[in-house]
Amino acid sequence: MKSKVYIYSIVLFSSLLFMNCQEDEMALPPQAEAVFSASADQVAVGETIQFTNDSQNATAYLWSFGDGTTSKLVSPKKSYESSDIFLVSLVSTGAGGSTISNMEITVTPASSFTVEDPESLLATVPVQFNNMSLEATSYSWSFGDGTNSSSTEENPTHTYTEAGTYSVSLTAESAVGSHVFTQDILVGSAPQKFADLYYIDLGDEYVRSLALDGTGTVSDILNIAGMGGVGMAYDHVNQKVYFSDFNAYPLGNIWKMNPDGSELEAIASNIGDPYAIALDIDAGKIYWVDDDGNVSRANMDGSNPEIGFFTVAGAWWRAIALDVENSKMYVYDSYFEDLYEVNMDGTDPNIIVSGVYGYAISVDTVNDKIYFDDQNEELLKVANLDGSDVQTVDDNGTRIYGMHIDHEEGKLYWSGRDSGELYRANLDGTGKEVLKTGLSSPRGIVLIK
Fold first, then answer.
1. 429 partner at 20 to 30 Å CA-CA among 75, 155, 242, 299?
2. Which residues form the signal peptide (predicted)?
């Protein structure tokens, strides 16, 4: 009997102990669980990230963003001011304790740029790009107008050759990544570009330019006192102006300079009264004629001179023009009064017009014509390249020392020594304009675009 009571007592005690322990376990609060997500794990400097807190069993939160800043908000927003990789931590705390969750955020540079005068962009005019990127160490530009249209400069300029809409991209890079910013720009048509007519004003001893923009503006380019002459030519490839100087016989010169008059250099010297000059730009040759019957040439820097590679004894050469396409040159003699066609190597000379003399000739290789000043009749004339079918272009009577043909516009330019004027007309002489009057003694001319 006593043994049964003892057994019942043990069972009861064990049951009570089990129930008591179970109640203690049920009374413990649940453990907090830190969980969060981000709207992006890679952003650019200054770009906002939205953090979303999905923690469980938590009532307090402490965020650490890896850049020294913190927050106690439930789901904060954050942006970074530097480019790096940052460790973001969230400590979530509840009655049952705290846990932590981490995430890496990569912050790249922020790429951005502006364009100066974006409403006024024009083809052929340089566009200035201003780099507004943040925290970048290098840059790569793509200007959107060709496979080689790029730059690594921080603030480049770029010139578009044609009007249109172009998509320009800037990639800003740092050690941790890169960011691309793209915007479209609208480039308008190129502005109208006006040419300048350069001329030698021998009376005033100046090389001058006349702006052909309708203003009539004349600019002094070079004072040629002590080195005046009449011949002039322009190398449009290398942008050099050549002119002759017969100031002191037989110490004449051929000069070369930039269009602004700088870097003046004598490339040929000790010439007996050099008159007209002409250029074969593709072959790198300059030709000139003189008062001693010589047609001469040299490299365009004056080296390798060939003095008198074609000569006519007693001739007073006054003008020369080249027909490079047909390997011909034309030279004008005022003593025997003949206009010659000669091979450019000096062989096979032929008189194509006789009984004429003047001071200027110009070859129109597009229309196979030659223009020449005939002072016997005081006329500006044009003929076929073989001298046939001579026609009158102008009857002003002035001596002409400079002619220039502009094939793009279909215009002929010439100077009038005695009239003191510069002229322009259609190639047949119609539509004649007086571009400038009141000049002292205009001689050689060139058109520079």
1. 242
2. 1-23
